[in-house]
Amino acid sequence: MNAASRRRICRALAAFVFFVLPSISRAAENFIIVQSTTSTQNSGLFEHLLPIFTKKTGIEVRVVAVGTGQALRNAKYGDGDVVFVHSEKDEEKFVAEGWGVKRYPVMYNDFVIVGPRADNARIGGGKDAPQAFKKIAEARAPFASRADDSGTHKAELNLWEQAGVDPKQSSGKWYLETGSGMGATLNLALGKRAYTLTDRGTWLSHANKDDFSILVDGDSKLFNQYGVILVNPAKHPNVKAKEGQAFIDWLVGPEGQAAIASYKISGEQLFFPNASLP
Amino acid sequence: MLDKLGTPLPDSSGLSSVRLLPLELRNLSLDIGGRGLIEGVDLYLEDPSLTVIMGPNGAGKSLLLRLMHGLIAPTGGAILWAGVPINAQIRRHQAMVFQKPVLLRRTALANITHALWLRGVPRGRRIPRATQALQLAGLMQHAFTHARVLSGGEQQRLCLARALSLDPDILFLDEPTASLDPASTLAIERLLIEAHHHGTKVILVTHDVGQARRLAHEIIFMHHGRVVEHQPALRFFQQPESIAGRAFIAGDLVL
Amino acid sequence: MSGSIDLDGTLRQIIILYPQLIEIVGLSLRVTLTAVAIATIIGFAIGGILAVSRFPGSSALIAIMNALMGLPPVIAGLVVYLMLSASGPIGVLQLLYTPTAMIIAQTLLVLPIVTTLTCRTCQDLLEEYREQLHSLGASSAAIVQTLLWDGRYRLVTPVLAGIGRAIAEVGAVMIVGGNIDHVTRTMTTAIALETSKGNLTLAIALGIILLVIALAINVVLMWMGKLPSHFANA
What we know:
The structure holds three protein chains of three kinds.
Chain A: H1 3-25, E1 31-37, H2 38-43, H3 45-57, E2 60-66, H4 68-76, E3 82-85, H5 88-96, E4 100-115, H6 129-139, E5 143-145, H7 151-163, E6 175-177, H8 182-192, E7 195-199, H9 200-205, E8 213-216, E9 223-231, H10 241-252, H11 254-261, E10 264-265, E11 268-269, E12 272-273
Parallel strand pairs in A: 1-2, 1-3, 5-6, 5-7
Antiparallel strand pairs in A: 3-9, 4-7, 4-8, 4-9, 4-12, 10-11
Helix pairs in contact in A: 6-7, 10-11
Chain B: E1 23-32, E2 35-45, E3 51-54, H1 61-69, E4 76-81, E5 84-85, H2 88-91, E6 94-97, H3 108-118, H4 123-136, H5 152-165, E7 170-174, H6 182-197, E8 201-206, H7 209-215, E9 218-223, E10 226-232, H8 233-238, H9 243-250
Parallel strand pairs in B: 3-8, 3-9, 6-7, 7-8
Antiparallel strand pairs in B: 1-2, 1-4, 4-5, 9-10
Helix pairs in contact in B: 3-4, 3-5, 4-5, 5-6
Chain C: H1 7-16, H2 18-52, H3 58-68, H4 73-84, H5 99-135, H6 140-150, H7 156-168, H8 171-177, H9 187-196, H10 200-226
């Protein structure tokens, strides 16, 4: 083996030592992985909330933000310590099937229907969400759906059901199924001048609003409940149960609840703490 | 004990004790794609004279050389070096120079030390031997020049120097000066004569009658894939036995 | 239109995010360069061996490597994710959502490119050297080493191609890394995030920075490759 190939191998080993090894050894650090949703991440809540928790407990919280369906699936496979999503039925199922220990309600935010100033379906100012959906369907006005199995998507489907409409039949015509996160769907809605259902938090923090505004809100059917669950360590021994539970306890305790309430965008509160006290 | 380059060896273990001669080709044939390129060749070479294989283009000279060196396998017949069929061990005591110089993208010196490395020469001996070979070929001033920048003649001299640095018992050359100028050709021929003096058996393929006259002790004349004549050089040039041979020496086109 | 690109705002945003920008760029470079380094070592070796040795299945392997050049990054990410998942075969290593996982995924993406291009380069060189190396009695291993060194300037191309493919992809690193802030957020996942948040200006600014970095790497490597440009047939 000549000098040249030896040099190359040395360089490679150096690369391995300096780049790969450090990340392997960091596996022992004090952190938990929380599977949560893109809408929660996009609202900016975590940037506000997590540093407070870490400062108090020294536990780093690493958030993986995907759709609700994917978050629960990831947790089912043991790739997370805590689940923090907003889809009550699926969360109950998750616990019932033994993948989670216990579901704690944490906070709620609400969904809003946004649309262009033109508002062809004339839903602006309404307080009845299913009624607004019905008007949109009748007017065949463009509507952007996340169609990605997320909490927001499930809430949207619920409203269509209550409105007595099956929008999937018009998929590709006026009902646009993006299969994407909230931000991407909003971008598409703006581009196509379409109505869409979004959580208030994502809407407020979405930089690109064009001439769109909130047309319908305040309906109790638009309330979006968040729950937090510890992944069951009995099913997945790698789960950091102690730290995970510490996070949950903090979230539903007075400090966490206050931190949630104090998060505001442009002076407006996004999330409303409603954890039931023990 | 002197090695083939004429320098004293530190010990005699470096000198091969393998007797490669006589070389015997028995009913050798080579068929490729249904065409018989070499047919029924019987040859017996036993003394270390400078042998030249001659013939018109397409006669099969280069193929015969490659068969002897073990680069191609025959489809029929046998190639025996002192009774042993050609194998990798035997090839280690041979070297070959091709018509077009084949040099790596590195310095002249590095090309030779690389070949010595391939042959398993220990690290400490490589540079001295390579330097010696370069000196012999008159290329010392180009030792650290990138080999491919050298002129055609210099490149071919380098290939020959490389071959000689390996201390081969048998040296094959396939039309080494075909595309070289007269000065380079002369330099190469001088090196060959000197190598032969020091004990290397040289087997040279050429279609240049003049070169054959200058160098050969023994002529093998080929035509259409067959060995037509095998004679001492003097006798071949004065009295060729075959019509083809006669025509070739006279400079006619041999069909 | 309020959604249009605002260059002044871009500059301000970048300055505000300055420390985080260094972090993101640093991670992108670390992940990609490490992955390419590993893929290069393995790819040079395999590519060289495939060019030099014929063994049962070698042609099939070459064809497969060729095809894998078009492997969608998302698929590479999914495969690695399923392996590293806590429920997966090597989940015990707890590598999911770490830069190491991202390095593994990108190595998988870059390996076919390096292998295939190395194999082709070595095959070309072998045409020229085969007989001479055979005459010198070189073993297969020795031939591979000789060809790799001889083709060293041409072999910069597969490395550049690998870097380009890795630094620009988002599918693989997003799935196996999770785009975790301060931990596994790279330039491309940050761009994806800012786009989904509607911060288009910032996304484009990040994209421009990414391109500038890629250009810088290309310039450096091409300069290294051009050093012997006055040599014939380099």
